[in-house]
Each structure stands twice: as structure tokens, then as C-alpha cells.
Amino acid sequence: SQTIHQWPATLVQPVGSPLSLECTVEGTSNPNLYWYRQAAGRGLQLLFYSVGIGQISSEVPQNLSASRPQDRQFILSSKKLLLSDSGFYLCAWRRRGGRESLYEQYFGPGTRLTVT
Amino acid sequence: GNSVTQMEGPVTLSEEAFLTINCTYTATGYPSLFWYVQYPGEGLQLLLKATKADDKGSNKGFEATYRKETTSFHLEKGSVQVSDSAVYFCALSDWRKAAGNKLTFGGGTRVLVKP
């Protein structure tokens, strides 16, 4: 069966510090991968998605970046965090190929980031 | 573009009450529709889905029917429990094979069930 991992689970970082959040998927190959942010009490905002190694699409201009160095690894980074980067970050994967619109996304447990 | 609209909430209910969360969508063609649930401090879990008109998705006592004529996918449960307290998200997936095949989410509805 497929599983998705995120770490760390929680993180407290000062303004201006760098960030690296990691997401890995097991039990599948060549998935679509997604990073979302959820601000407190708000809905989901899609940040980045990837359809393959080294292929990253950005949905919202910001001081965050994403990378996919391996097929099942997705990393969210920042060189200098802002207060507004605080939130709950969720990684998700989705099966590729065929009728992709039929397939649901599977979400990781999330990382709660607090920028102080 | 695609969009999903759902009632904002919070929705506060007593145990064993009937729950309805309205969801309407705007999309071209025939999207697939999903309901996700998020329990406090956790990621999202798929609750149910429907991939074509008149399909009914069901899981854990929840049901939703894909109504193309009203572009709706309302979530219902006949008798809620305290453990159903969570945030519920309606989402759609465009039928076209767009790159990454993203999901479009509604804003989420917080449900609080009191004993």
C-alpha cells in the first residue's frame, strides 16, 4: 500500500531563517506531487505541483520554492522566512496516467510551521 | 475557470442530528467530485467521491450525489456523532488532462457536534 510521510511534524523558526520541509511517498512510482498551505481557519492554497523529477510548477508567487530531486521526494524551501509563512503545510500525491481526473489526492499528515 | 462554493460554517449540531453541507461547482465538461474530511491537527482524508452524473458516493454513513443539472454535490449524514466534528472540503477535478491535474477546493466547512 501507498504511504506519504512529512517531516518535521512541527517547526518554530525565526523570521529571516531558512526553511526545508520534506515529503516522501512510498508504494507508488511517478506520482504527481503537490504542496499546499493552510492558514489558520482558512482553506487550502495550492503552492506548487510536480509531474516529474525536476519539473515544478508554481501557483502563487512568493518567497517559497520547491524541488523534486527524486521521483518520490518533494521538498519545500525558503531562503528567508516571513511571518506570513506561518501555517499548516500539506503534501499530497496523486496517481498518474489514464483518466487522471478520476483519481483522488492522498494527503500527508502535515507540518505546522510557526514563524516568530 | 473552475470553482467550488460551500457553506462557510461553523455548523453546530447535536448528536444524532441530520447534517447537510451544501456544495456547488462551476466547471466545463464533466468533472469528478470529492469530499475530504480534516480532523483537528491532521491532513485531509478522502471521504467519498463521484465521477459521473447521478453517481452517489458513500462512506461512514455520509452520502453525496453528483447532480449535474444543479451543479451540486451536497454532503449528508442522517445521524451525526461527536467524532464527526471536523472540517469538510468539497473539491473537483477537471476532466481535461491538464498538466498536474489539480484539484479545486472549496473553502471548507467546520462542523461541531455536541453531545
Which spans of chain A of ≥5 residues are poorly predicted at pLDDT below 50? none
Instruction: List the helices and strands of chain A in order.
Output: EEEEEEEEEEE
Structural class of chain B: mainly beta
Mean pLDDT figure of chain B? 92
Q: Biggest β-sheet of chain B: count, sense, barrel?
A: 6 strands, mixed
User: Into which percentage range does the β-strand content of chain B fall?
Assistant: over 45%
Instruction: Please provide the ordered H/E string of secondary-structure elements of chain B.
Output: EEEEEEEEEEEE
Q: Would you count the extended β strands of chain B for me?
A: 12
Strand residue percentage of chain A: over 45%
Rg for CA atoms of chain A: 14 Å
Write down the overall geometry of chain B: globular
* CA(first)-CA(last) distance of chain A: 38 Å
Count of helical stretches of chain B: 0
Termini gap of chain B: 41 Å
> Helical residue percent of chain B?
under 10%
Main sheet of chain A? 7 strands, mixed
Structural class per helix/strand content of chain A? mainly beta
Count the DSSP helices of chain A. 0
3D architecture notes:
The complex is a heterodimer of chains A (116) and B (115). Chain A has strands spanning 3-7, 10-13, 19-26, 32-38, 44-52, 55-58, 64-70, 73-78, 87-94, 105-107, 111-115. With 116 residues, chain A is an all-beta fold. In chain A, strand 4 (32-38) and strand 5 (44-52) form a beta hairpin. The N and C termini of chain A lie far apart (38 Å). Chain B has no helices and twelve strands. The radius of gyration of chain B is 14 Å and the shape is globular. In chain B, strands 2, 5, 6, 10, 11 and 12 form a six-stranded mixed beta sheet that branches. In chain B, strands 3-9-8-7 form a four-stranded antiparallel beta sheet, with no helix packed on it. Chain B has a two-stranded antiparallel ribbon with strand order 1-4. Chain B is an all-beta fold and 115 residues long. The interface between A and B is medium-sized, with 25 and 27 residues.
